[in-house]
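Teaching assistant here, posting this on the class forum so everyone can see the example we discussed in section. The complex has two components, and the goal was to see what a joint structure prediction looks like when all of them are supplied at once.
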Amino acid sequence: MSAGQLPRWVDYGLIPLLNLAAAFLVSGLVVVLIGENPLDAVKVLLWGSLGYGEGFGFTLFFATNFIFTGLAVAVAFHAGLFNIGGEGQAYLGGLGVAFACLALDQYVPWWVTLPFAILGSALMGAAWAFIPAWLQAKRGSHVVITTIMFNFIAASLMVYLLNNVMKKAGSMQSETRTFEEGGRLPFLNDIFPGFGFDYAPVNLSLFVAFLACILVWLLIWRTKLGFEIRSFGANPTAAVYAGINPVRIIIVTMLISGGLAGMMAINEIMGSQHRLLIDYVAGYGFVGIAVALMGRSHPVGIVLAAILFGMLYQGGAELSFEMPAITRDMIVVIQGLVILFAGALEYLFRPALIRLFSAGRSPAAQAA
Amino acid sequence: MNKPITTQELETTAQPAIELRKINKRFGPVHANKDIDLLVKKGSIHGIIGENGAGKSTLMSILYGFYTADEGDILVDGKKVAIPDSKTAISLGIGMVHQHFMLVDNFSVLENVVLGAEGGANLSVGLASARAELKRLEDEYELKVDPDALIEELPVGLQQRVEILKALFRGAEILILDEPTGVLTPAEADHLFKILEVLKNQGKTVLLITHKLREIMAITDTVSVMRRGEMVATRQTSETSMSELAELMVGRSVLLNVDKTPATPTNKVLEISNLNVTDSRGVRVVKDVSFNVRAGEIVGIAGVSGNGQSELLETIAGIRHADTGTLWIDGEEIDLAKNPLDPAQMRQRSLGHVPEDRHRMGLVTKFAEYENSILGYHNDPIYSRGLLLDIAKIKELASGEIEKYDIRPPNPLLKTANFSGGNQQKIVLAREIERDPTVLLVGQPTRGVDIGAIEFIHKRIVELRDAGKGILLVSVELDEIRSLADRILVMFDGKIVGERTADADEGELGLLMAGVEGETK
């Protein structure tokens, strides 16, 4: 009865690769249909995302966003919660970063601003997750519904703030003033000139993202809170039996999740844009869901999946430039296919693999 | 087909409406139906009685095509049939009234009756002919119900009548009712029985699934008793008694041998007074319960499952909320209604709890064994070093428990789902007993556990008693209660209906458990 056990390498290695292969196979067919050579397309995509320093820099820049939003979704997953409000939480996170930078950038160097920016982004992201969390914990309103609604509220709120409250004087743009040196993170090109990242916006936030990965790993697998989160996610009844308070776990987990999503703004706002502007989240929050699914909610998997999606973003841009027949929209189709196979169809190959692997074992072992 | 029919007191001339031969059904390791033979006479009301989990519903689901049997034959009207789905069952004239109604609330009675048998794309034609047919059925079987009433506006008794009409509309000759009175008031139940009488007189065959003895005695012609997946007996209702059926239901297998000396109880370690608990459906499930457990004794709560024992245990453990009630643990008074403690706080007061359902409650089966070995005790500082859990130490302690409790395979890293039932139970037991609790709540300690592990588990529980701890044992296995407990409380319908010593007469306990004495009082 207990559905087939798969070896870890199949679960964590083979299945994601098979999903990816299927996505690329279908994408290849699409490319063939519009009259281009799919192998050439792959070549352009790989070269554009990994082949030279600046391209790789862009890949890493996008990956940084995906690590934050992927971690956010993953933490909630461990508690059995589906936080699809990363988009709005990341958007509000930008507000926290902007507060810190606008207040401090003229007086202190960036490394003094950074801790405040991290704190601000995490606090604002967490705050945006709090109301859905509270409604879920206390009223049973499903977080899927409430978090997605909060994405729309966030978008409207930010438009209002950026047009009516925070707009730079005498400008038509819906954005704040540009931060001074004290509100800008160093680009990796300046720290490591040897890599030739050139104008790629990849910046110090990449390391903040790696640090977040380590902290999330410790939280989930090495702390009491993580133990409680996983217990609640895997078996809520057993968690209650164990004296774990569901209300507390739901709220705390969502706050952490929202905080991580909010931290994405450090990369975009303090690391690259150097000003708060509208619509900068641009779907990174949603892609985080696919990243978390593909990365099996484990930080290592999330980093790998984030880099993959970074490649798709960067290589895809390159592809639409090199092969005009493959428009920007085609790239979105390919990304969509990867999300479809890695996320929604995650279990497509699973039953077949389980049959394959359990057939290999002796019937006696199965009966046991 | 002409095989000799079993030595039943049936007229050999009448073809049985249903005959089951050697039906077997397994769900993984659970053998839900073992070699079931059953003969149901045409035009009779045949009861099937047994405790929750005895396999009644599984058997009926096989008959109705929800499950297919692993082995065995089904004969309807003497013909061997295969019933792969409920559509086939309906075409064979088998209708089923489920415990939970399968009705669309915001449809009318007529629409519900027609649903799935509309007969063509033009609904109004189908509805018109259905209305006429419904009228005929109502007259023939005295099943009055307004065809245009909405289901949600009907009382439960009438909704059930719609279910019966649905089955008759589809031409059912054999009607299966699964726990039909569970949701009915006594008056509604009496009315249902009248309807069943009419159906019988019109030549229909009725199969009534229940765990209520009173209903069996009141309405059936023949009764079959199931216990732990087996059909243990079939009787003519007129020739049996409630006490015989109660005994058959609960079972009278060999007493398990438990080595134990007479108890030497000392002071009260757990006391419950005036406990009332209401479940999520708003039904009062624990009624005015008061009792105590002393150090050095095992108090057993006997009862047919579903009579409030689970809720009682969960309330004491802090999982459920009480309406009223006071609890004393080791002298400390706790108001269960106004200031209840949560399970973690109860553990801090040295209350261990082996829950009745280890899969649902006692374990996170996705976790490795060592992780489950601290579930509920994970806040204990001995498992932490600074902010982090001390994984090495937890594994080491888990390995110690594995050795002491002979948990196999002896691998703390193995996923808990991959241990057998007995070993999983030992994991829970090790976790709760090794914390040296003052009071241990134990629910169904040996359900789904093999004989070897049963002995081991019983021994551990007795050892804990001899170490001067108070143990409250809930089990639906009367044998287990009788062999382990020093005092026996019998629970029926949420109340404690009697207290007996461990050497109490089994038949007497059986009657108490069936609520017979309770009802006459």
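For the discussion questions: Residues 123-141 of chain B form the longest helix (19 residues). Chain B touches chain A through 37 residues (CB under 8 Å). Think about how each of these relates to the inputs above.
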